[in-house]
Each structure stands twice: as C-alpha cells, then as structure tokens.
C-alpha cells in the first residue's frame, strides 16, 4: 500500500484520521440462517449491514452451505475476515446433487476492499448442476431436516426416485462467530 511519510501520518493521526498505511483490509461482515422451502430453485437475498476491518494480512471471505431435503431447505451464510495465509479462491462444491437430497457449498476468499459482496445465493445456484428428477418409485423414505431441533419417527415420507434406497444420516454444524 505504499509508504507514508511519518510526519504526515503523525499529523493525520493526531487529527483523528485513520491512515491507510497498513495491510489491513475492510470486509463485509454478517451471518445468514434461513430455513424454508425451495432454496435450490429460488435465490435468497444475502445482505450484510456491517463492515469489519481485519487484522494485518487477513483476507475477506464469504461462505454458503445449502441443504435441501424433500420439502425443506436450509441455507447458512457467513461473511467476514479470514485468517492470514488463506488463498484467493472461488469454489462451489456439490456433495449431493439429488434427486432427493441436495447439499452444496460456496466459498470465496479475496483480498481487495469489500470484495466479499455477493448479494444473494445466486452465486451458488448458478454453479449447481442438479440431477434431473427421475421417475418416482414406489419406495417411501422418511425425510427430516431440522434446525436447532431433532428428527422424530414421525417424519414426513416422500416417494424416492426409482433405483434409490433409504438411508439414515445426521449432520451437526458448530462454530462461527
């Protein structure tokens, strides 16, 4: 960011101005947690109303996690500063493309002012290649997606596509600020 002349820096800091002589970056900051229906088909607005000045050498990040199971969807989002040493990347990873269960993530690490500026989940949806819905079978499986809750034996049942089976799985997320 260039060197500052010390006398000007001292004068400006005495006057209460922040002097841009460091490698600290300003990033958008915020979290999003939405529980609903159809988040694989319709983009969800993703706003951040705060900024955060990172520590030296930190970079900006934005991350989305989408889980869609039957008639329920969960989207988790995070924007803020990330630890030094992270590489600049933009990545979408699909863990399950359906039909039935969709699980995918979007991660963007960048190193310019307020570069973590996605305004909706469209950044994830545009990169998804979801499996086409196949012919419905006759097998019914329980489907449950809960946020801060537990699934019970009284879950909803859905008809599974031909050639698929039922299975049980649990995903627990922790962390964040």
UniProtKB/TrEMBL annotation:
Predominant location: membrane
Cell location: Cell membrane
UPAR/Ly6 domain segment(s): 56-117, 138-176
Species the sequence originates in: Rattus norvegicus (Rat)
Gene: Lypd10l1
Cellular-component GO terms for this entry: plasma membrane raft
Protein name per its UniProtKB record: Ly6/PLAUR domain containing 10 like 1
One GO biological process term: leukocyte cell-cell adhesion
InterPro entries on file: Fert-Immune_med_protein, LY6_UPA_recep-like
Keywords associated with the record: Cell membrane, Glycoprotein, Membrane, Signal
């Amino acid at each position: 960011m260039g060197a500052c002349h010390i006398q000007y820096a001292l004068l400006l800091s005495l006057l209460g101005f922040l002097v841009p002589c460091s490698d600290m970056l300003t990033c958008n900051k915020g979290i999003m947690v939405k529980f609903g229906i159809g988040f694989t088909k319709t983009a969800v607005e993703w706003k951040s109303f705060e900024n955060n000045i990172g520590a030296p050498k930190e970079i900006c990040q934005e991350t989305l996690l989408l889980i869609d199971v039957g008639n329920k969807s969960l989207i988790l989002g995070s924007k803020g500063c990330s630890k030094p040493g992270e590489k600049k990347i933009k990545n979408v990873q699909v863990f399950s493309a359906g039909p039935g269960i969709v699980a995918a993530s979007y991660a963007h690490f960048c190193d310019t002012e307020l570069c973590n500026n996605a305004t909706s989940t469209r950044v994830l949806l545009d990169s998804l290649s979801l499996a086409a819905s196949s012919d419905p079978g006759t097998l019914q499986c329980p489907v449950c997606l809960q946020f801060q809750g537990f699934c019970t034996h009284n879950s909803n049942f859905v008809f599974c596509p031909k050639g698929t089976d039922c299975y049980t799985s649990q995903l627990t997320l922790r962390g964040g600020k």
